[in-house]
Each structure stands twice: as C-alpha cells, then as structure tokens.
Amino acid sequence: MLRTSIYVDGFNLYYRALRRTPFRWLNIHELAVNLLSAENQIHKIRYFTARVSGKQDPGNPVRQALYLRALESLPQVEIHYGSFLARRKMRPLADPLPGGPTHVEIEDMEEKGSDVNLATHLLNDAWKDDFDVALLLSQDSDLLEPLRIVREELAKTIGIVSLDGREPGSLKKYASFVRTVTPERLRAAQFPEVLEVGNRGKIIRRPPQWA
Questions:
Q1: Which residue has the higher pLDDT, 27 or 87?
Q2: Residue 210 and residue 48: Cα distance in Å, rounded?
Q3: pTM for this structure?
C-alpha cells in the first residue's frame, strides 16, 4: 500500500470545477478514491481555504460553514485557513468618456495564504517522509518550485489533478501522473443530502442553493 496525502486548494477547486455545478456538496475523500488506484491508502487530506465574506451575499458564510462542517466529519481531513481580504483599489476604465473620469474605485475581494500554506505543508510532510504519494488538487502555477523539490530532491510521487479538463500547464512537468475531474466523478462523490456530524449527532443539510 502507498501512503497517500491529498492537498486541496479549496478556492482553486471551487472556481475551476464546482462553482456553476450542482456538485458543490463534495466529499473530497470519495473524489480522491475515485481518482486514485486501489494501492493508494489515503491517510491525510489537507484542505486549504479562508472564511468568505458575506458583504455581497450574506448567505455565503453560512453555506461555507455548513460545507466545512461536512468536511470535518471526515476523519482524514485537516482544514487550514488563510484570510479573505476586501480592499478598495483604483482601476483604469477600459473606455473612458471624453472629459470624464479615467479611473474607478472598486472593492477587490482577495483570498490570501492558501497557496503558501499548501506549499509549506506539502514540503514539510515530504521532508518528514509522511507520504509516498501526494495528490494535488490545484492548478496554481505558483506551486511549481515546491513540486520540483518534492519530486526531484525528495523522490516522492506526485499526482496532479486537472480540475477544469485542461492540461495542468507547467505543473505537469513534475507530475508522476495526471488525473482529470469529470462531472461523473463529481456526481459520484457527493455527501448525503442529510449528514450527521459531531459526537452529539448534529444534523446538517446540503444548502438548497447547491441543488
């Protein structure tokens, strides 16, 4: 059996594979099992995210909290938090009117920390010989150098998952194998509509907006 750890960039996964689908109530463990071989023994799933803002949609934090509770019901899952920042920025207008303003102030919502946290834990786990195989659910090219170190200097096996059906770009250079997320795999890896979580058997339900 191959000790296998899963590294998930939650926002990368959401925006590339889940955002406009009915598959957002996703059981990461079941998806990973579907993507891997029978010889892979999943012993850890690291999920990297940040608490979202409710400024534009007050329901966003509620739905995310429900999903994180569902993930926490999986014994292999550890959730690592970055931060979600709202900043006002000036941006140039593409086609300003004659005599009018050339720039506009926007509120930019930006997630910070997930890529750095993922790279840090991936490298640390590899140095500690905590896995034989790492499966990466992210297509963030900023992870290229950590992947190189894990593959070339630490001689670990790395699987890269294409989240949107496209080639995983520069990350493929250090991939031992590549898997692809498909609607069929997402459909087969959903949590039950009603889920019991925690020691007291609390019941949570899939957000109706995700149906």
A1: 27
A2: 21
A3: 0.89
In 10 A of CB 114, how many CB atoms?
A: 24
The pair of three-digit structure tokens given for residue 149, joined into one six-digit string: 């170190």
- Give the integer Cα–Cα distance in Å for 11 and 138: 9
- Answer left, alpha or beta for residue 140, where phi above 0 means left and psi between -120 and 50 means alpha: beta
61: exposed, middle or buried (C-beta count within 10 Å: 0-12, 13-18, 19+)? middle
8 A C-beta contact, residue 131 and residue 156: yes
Judged by DSSP in three states, 194 sits in strand
Each residue's pLDDT tens digit, 174-198? 999 999 999 999 999 999 999 999 8
Neighbours of 164 (CB within 10 A): 13
All domains of the chain in start order, with CATH: 2-93+101-210 (3.40.50.1010)
| String of DSSP letters for 105-168 | EEEEEEEESHHHHHHHHHHHHHHTT--SEEEEE---GGGHHHHHIIIIIS--EEEEEESSSS--
User: Is 31 or 200 the better-scoring residue by pLDDT?
Assistant: 31
pLDDT at residue 108 tops 80: no
Residue 63: its H or E element: helix 59-72
Instruction: Provide the 3-class DSSP secondary structure of residue 90.
Output: strand
Strands 202-205 and 194-197, how do they pair? antiparallel
